[in-house]
Each structure stands twice: as structure tokens, then as C-alpha cells.
Amino acid sequence: MPRKERSDLGERTALFGEAVIALSKIPDVTRNRPLIRQIVASGTSVGANYREADDASSDRDFSYKMSLCRKEASETTYWLRMLAKAEPACREKARELWREAKELNLIFARIVRDMQRRIKDADKRKP
């Protein structure tokens, strides 16, 4: 992936994490506490795992860490859905972030698929 695209995706995942944190500032009532904890953990983990992937030591390491990005983005869509149900006032913002999480998930899935193909091709060329 060209450097500019990597830095753009790095910034995009950071902005996503920041938006998730902002959304988590909802009433601190018993039903919301586990939702807040989960959504902040998964939503900010997307960018953290992306940065780890960017510094991967090998193609396999990169592929693995990108798959973690994909999984965390997917998990975040679940928690956004639950949060929207628990706090109807934040439903529109949660939907907006759900769309971004879904798009990030698709981007990471494509990257992982392409990298796994590349690894497989490289393994075939080994003596």
C-alpha cells in the first residue's frame, strides 16, 4: 500500500476512535456502563491495531494485525447498534459511525485478502 494511503487510513482510524469516544459521553447509568466500556475499547482498538500493522515485522504479521483491525471494526458495529437502542438520542450519530465502521471493516477485509494472496504466491515460489 502506498505511504499516502497508509497515512490517510491511519488518520481515518484515529478520527474514528475520537468520534467513538465523543459518542460515549452519554448518561452514566447502569445499563450504559458496559456498552460504553465495550464500544470505546473496540472503537479505539481499530486505530491501535492499524498502527501495529503499519509497523509489522513481516507480511504474515501485517496480515494478522490487519485482520485484528477488521474484527475490531466489526465488533464496533455491534456495540454501536446496542448503544443506539439503549440511548435513542444518539441513534443518528451511532448510525453514522456504524457506516464508517462497516466501511473500515470492508477496507481491512480487502487488505487482508490481498495480503494473504501475496503470501500464498510467495510461498509457492519458495524452493
What this model shows, in words?
The protein is mostly helical and 127 residues long. The protein has a single domain (3-125), classed as de novo design (two linked rop proteins). The chain contains 4 helices and no strands. Helix 1 (3-23) packs antiparallel against helix 2 and helix 2 packs antiparallel against helix 3. The protein is elongated, with a radius of gyration of 16 Å. The chain starts with a helix and ends with a helix. 31% of the residues are buried. The model has no long low-confidence stretch (mean pLDDT 92).
Topology (elements, then pairings):
Blueprint: H1 3-23, H2 33-54, H3 59-86, H4 91-125
Helix pairs in contact: 1-2, 1-4, 2-3, 3-4
Give a concise summary.
By secondary structure, the protein is mainly α. It has one domain (3-125): de novo design (two linked rop proteins), CATH 1.20.1440.60. Helices cover 83% and strands 0% of the residues.
Name the CATH superfamily classification: 23S rRNA-intervening sequence
Number of DSSP strand runs:
0
Number of domains: 1
- Terminal Cα separation, in Å? 27 Å
Gyration radius (Cα, Å) is: 16 Å
CATH architecture: Up-down Bundle
Average pLDDT confidence is 92
Helix and strand composition category:
mainly alpha
**Poorly predicted regions:** none
Sum up the overall morphology in one term: elongated
Q: What is the CATH third-level topology name?
A: de novo design (two linked rop proteins)
Q: What's the CATH first level?
A: Mainly Alpha
Share of helix among residues?
A: over 70%
